[in-house]
Amino acid sequence: MYGGFGLVSALTGTAVFYRAAEPLPVGLNWIIVVVAVLASAAASAAVRPWGRRVPRRVVPAMLIGLCLVSGAAAFGLLMDAVTLIFTQTVDSWTATANRTLAATGVVLLIATARSHRSSTYGACPRCGTAHASSPTRGPEPAPAPRRVRVAAYAGAAAFLPYAAMKTTWALGGTFAGVGGAQMTATIERNGASGVLLTLERWGVDATVLLAALGVFLILGLVRPWGQVFPRWTPVLRGRRVPRWLPLTPALIGAATLAPYGAVGIVYAALGAAGAVTVPRGDFPTPGDALLVAWVGLGAFAVYGIALGAAAWSYLRRTRPVCAAAGAGIPS
After folding, report:
1. Which parts of 129-278 fold into alpha helices (H)?
2. Which residues cross the membrane (predicted)?
């Protein structure tokens, strides 16, 4: 599907890759076709008998490399989702479709790589050990290691300055030389929905609500209560949370916020050093714009990196355990 999407977009001259709001050359669309062909070959080698004649390390290396390329193509999917929530539209539906298909490809390639590993090394795809097939059971809920919990708490705390800044504007206050009324006018000009504007007038910023959800997510990833539905859910009470439910937003968020924030921090540092010119945008001075950049991008960088660590820990701690005697989670 992804290959067909890339081929049609290339032949019709439709750009699918963007830098900010600027479309990149249509010729880049052929990268999708190449990735699709290589993915088909690698996946066939992973599951077909003839693939055993390929050197053992070639197929997993190809699958991992294609995961990285597809992950790069999926970058920005989280921003598209946030934009869709705020404005009921996105900058480019074609670009969003490209990112969605690329993200789906990452998941399927990872699943193929795991299947290939288990068939090649004779290991159980669930627990990583060699044994006869057996039922699986979920591990007991457990907290993340202390260092991962500390990172998660730091990631949650990183949103406090951001939330304070946004709430100041929502309540009509002034920060970085911009008042609340001016910021509301800017949001309205950028196409915010009526619901979001109403929240702003009530003193509630929608991005602060998203930040609160992000804090809830990262804390749930490192604490035992994030693995079991709470008591106040009448139907699901006491049942295990499906792994994909927290991991999907966590992995997408980490893959987006961590590089976005890290690159932004480097840019802000270069701006502070005078190596690059920081445009003032809607702010009175470049210094005000730089201050807001430090607050926002700093939160994204710290939270994104912490979210990645928390998601990886959750992925390992919640891996199903085989019921066979002696089978467990590999260290």
Report:
1. 146-157, 159-170, 180-189, 194-201, 206-222, 244-272
2. 31-51, 63-86, 206-226, 247-270, 290-315
What's the pTM? 0.83
What are 23's strand-pairing partners? 18
Q: How far apart are CA 101 and CA 94, in angstroms?
A: 11
Exposure string over 219-251, b if 16+ CB within 10 A, otherwise e = bbbbbeebbbbeeeeeeeeeeebeeeebbebbb
Domain boundaries, the chain: 2-121, 146-322
Confidence class for position 300, pLDDT limits 50, 70, 90: very high
Helix 244-272 to helix 286-317 angle, to the nearest 10 degrees?
150
Q: Give Cβ neighbours of residue 266 (< 8 Å, ≥ 6 apart).
A: none
Strand pairing category for 321-322 and 136-137: antiparallel
Phi, psi of 234 (to 5 degrees): -60, -40
| DSSP type of residue 320 | P
Contact 236, 229 (CB under 8 A): yes
d(CA 100, CA 238): 33
pLDDT tens for each residue of 265-291 = 999 999 999 898 888 888 999 999 999
Q: Tell me the pairing of strands 174-175 and 22-23.
A: unpaired
Q: How far apart are CA 83 and CA 190, in angstroms?
A: 11
Judge contact between 197 and 187, C-beta under 8 A: yes
CA 89, chain centre distance (Å): 20
Question: Given this model, what pLDDT does residue 330 score?
Answer: 41
pLDDT digits (tens, 9 = 90+) for 65-94: 999 999 999 998 998 988 888 878 888 999
- Cα angle: 212, vertex 215, 216; to 5 degrees: 90
205, two tokens? 């910023």
Residue 49, exposed/middle/buried by CB under 10 A (0-12, 13-18, 19+)?
Answer: exposed
- The two tokens of residue 156 are 């949650």
